[in-house]
Amino acid sequence: MKCLLCDSTIVYSPTWQGLLLRNREEPVCKKCKAEFAEIKEPRCGICGLPGSTLCTDCSYWETTEYRGCIDAGIGLYQYNEAMKTFLHRYKFLQDVELSRVFAEEVKRSLRKPRGVVVPIPMHASKLMERTFPQVDRLLDAAEINYRHFLIKSNSTQGTKTKKERMAVENLFAWNGEAVPKKILLIDDLYTTGTTLRQAAKTLKDAGAEEIRIWTLIRG
Amino acid sequence: MKELEEFLTGRIWLLNFTPFSKDLIDEYISGGLIAVSKGIGKDRVCARCLENSPQKIISFYCSKCEEACYYCRHCINMGRISSCTELITWKHPTQPPQKNHSFAWTGTLTNLQERASIKVSKSLEQNHSHLVYAVCGAGKTELLFVPIFKALQKGLRVCIAAPRTDVVLELSPRIKNAFPDTRIHTLYGGAPYEEGFADIVIATTHQLYRFQDAFDVMIIDEADAFPYSYDASLERAVIKAKKETAPVVYVSATPSERLLKKVPERSEIFRRFHGQDLPVPSFKPLWNYKKSLLKNKIPKKLADWVTDKIRKKEPFLLFLPTIELIDHSIALFQKLDPSIEAVHSQDPQRKEKVMKLRNGEVAGLLTSTILERGITIPNVQVAVVGADDRIFDASALIQIAGRAGRSSEQPGGDVVFFHNGIAREMDKARNRIISYNARSRS
Questions:
Q1: A93 and B61: CB-CB below 8 Å?
Q2: Which of B51, B62, B63 to mutate to test the interface with A (most CBs of A within 10 A)?
Q3: The CATH number of domain A39-218 is 3.40.50
Q4: A1-28 pLDDT, tens per residue?
């Protein structure tokens, strides 16, 4: 097997656990994997930013109309150089196969979700351009079930400044299906938190009672 | 539009990623001048890089097509090719008008270079491939100037390809100085867009993926890894980029057995341009060097060698087998001299650091095999730490030894292979260097 990231041959060292549990082959080599930095405690209880238990961004958000939209949340990884390269290749170079890179970690983290797993959707035209929904594929690779309740109704966030993002009108619409009480909202990257808050607010307005967020990367 | 034709002639390009407007291209497609083809066809081969292995041609559910598509992971850094992307080519290239090329090189060739140069020209006249087998520092590039000039005068399009960006960047100004009136493009990953039709293209072998039936003469510099056993697609890229009958000139200091067999027409130079012998490497045991470096201790023999070079103010290159070992050891060596720096393939400062060594601003560099070829530093002293490591095959070791003694002022130079047990490849490298020296005298 070749590493999905550096293309070097992965040396397979057999372990008892591997033999007994028939673990799947690793998608990336140890060296590449070691370059990603997991987020450890203490971290913000809402967005998962390492540092204090409530970061300054989230305490600001709690003074706005979005107060209480997100009840809790975590992010798995920091947005370091290796992660930037990964995301660039996955999303912009459209290397769908990279959805497998974190499959084991995603699976472990979302094994017992507290609520129905709901990915952040893509805008239809963006989806045509990218040819795959990147958040759904991360979940598919990890064999996690999910449902959609949201429709992305507006343009992308990527090119806007932080202020523009925080001020923009709601990006999401409810798709009309009955919303479960507890939801775990999933996105690949948390940057300013606008996307996730607007999605959460839309879902709460549609009847959700508790919303947690889960992101692969807390930028 | 002339500009579009000049750009596309000989190229195979992603429809959606050209420097031209979509409307303009559509106009030429409907006019029948631009041909459109699928990125990956039913044969599941990438039309750009010709990759065909199922590990690299991956099936996925495409939201655009709403069905299963394939995409190529091999050349994805150049923009993704999939079954639903389209590639364009210029259908019927018109013969470029005869141009006035000039030849401005004023140097002189040694007798050996001259003889090889004539042989290359002769092979090309007969449309035959040719191998220039010449030691490091023989002056390989210069002997190609006249054959290139002759080809240009006939209106032929010439490509000079090399496996590494460093080598391409080093070649480019030399070729441009020799042919000042010729349009020359230099292509590598991240290179800026250059206008017009280039009669000479200097490119990394990777960039050849973007050409098809383009070149009348193909020169492969540093062709020792050729045929690229580790990356068969690069070999296919060379064949695809040239016109079907175009001859190839392979240039190498350490050609593979396969290449020697494949190309019967050959010229050999085993003497450096300055006429002196190649420095012969000496072997010095350095038992358990890895362990002591990891324990933050430089083995005494190695420390002595480095200190000696620092004291004599001789620039040195210290080759190590792995990036991890370089990263770990650099701090230890900086205790001997704080100016010592480390370079490896992912280092964006690589060029600057080599310049610093050339200018005497740093005492020496710790390096991976990345600096094994293409660089010239007067009076440089060379040591390989762990020359028995698998990464150093005979060709790599010959190239590394070939960094020393390149200038006519200082034709000598120390080459030491520190080892943890002599490997066969070390013997092979040393014997070959000795035989080159012997053959050049006979």
A1: no
A2: B63
A3: yes
A4: 889 999 888 876 666 766 666 556 789 9
